[in-house]
Amino acid sequence: MARKGDVMAWGSRRRTGKSVYARRCAFARRLTVAMVGCIALPAIAAPSSDSTTSQSIRLLVDGKAPVVLDRASLSALPRASVTASAHHEPPSQWQGVALEDILRKANVPSGEQLRGKAMTTLVRITASDHYQVVFTLAELDPMLGNTQVILADTQDGHPLNKGGPFRLIVPGDKRPARWIRSVATIEVAQSAAPTP
User: Fold this and answer.
1) In sequence order, what DSSP letters do the residues of 97-162 get, joined into one string?
2) Which N-terminal residues, if any, form the signal peptide (predicted)?
3) CATH topology classification for 49-190
4) Which of these, 116, 114, 181, 184, lies nearest to 143 by C-alpha position?
5) Residue-range domain boundaries for the chain
6) pLDDT, tens digit only, all 196 positions of the chain
């Protein structure tokens, strides 16, 4: 038995009868199990991302109370459709609501009203996984940029199962980087312009 001040050699035995190496291996196994438990338990306890995807979208416009858009409120708006493809997939028929109609319903300036300070307004769309894309209000306006953007809820006549329940479709983009899946929030705000 070692006395105070004695140095224990690697592999020597203490009271337990196990070598230091065996005790360290046992400790490493317990630590590994604990770490895996800390990482895996939240993933096991939380439902999959598809099942936690919200069935509604929050619409936030500067200076106005937030609005919740669900399937019922979106079905009251005119339907739009577009044929487009993303990521080398065959073209699909996407149906939903034009983003400009959603913004018009929220009394966001458009057409002749879109001038001056309103020209610096941004529209930021956030997915449930926090991926974000940005449009200028001017590029979305039919009288200026006329970029067609659809908030799709069906593809080829079927509800979206992958990336749904709502997905942004931007057929005019050369790359589908702004085809955001699982849309959770639409925010309309003035851009922060530097003061001269």
Assistant:
1) EEHHHHHHHTT---GGG--GGGGGEEEEEEETT--EEEEEHHHHSTTTT----EEEEEETTEE--S
2) 1-45
3) Sulfite Oxidase; Chain A, domain 2 (3.90.420)
4) 114
5) 1-46, 49-190
6) 555 555 555 555 555 566 766 666 565 565 454 444 444 334 333 333 444 456 899 999 998 999 999 999 999 999 999 999 877 889 999 999 999 999 999 999 888 888 888 888 999 999 999 999 999 999 998 888 888 899 999 999 999 888 789 999 999 888 889 999 999 999 999 887 665 6
